[in-house]
Amino acid sequence: VEDALTWVHDNRDSFANPITTVNLSLGVDWNSDQLPPWATLEENFAQLHTDGIFVAVAAGNSFADYGVAGTSFPI
Fold it and tell me: What is the pTM of this model?
């Protein structure tokens, strides 16, 4: 996902109509009290925001805390 978001940044103006939106629906089977190293995309989202690209990310029903049902989203 990180490589794909980097590609969007690098190629945002490579087309007749520039890239203006990224729509993500991400989910994993991860339930822990600590984030895995692959779960943080803040820098990528911040870069796309700076580029003027709107990013929409679907939240899913998962775990907010270890072992407790809740809503999750990419961090």
Answer: 0.71
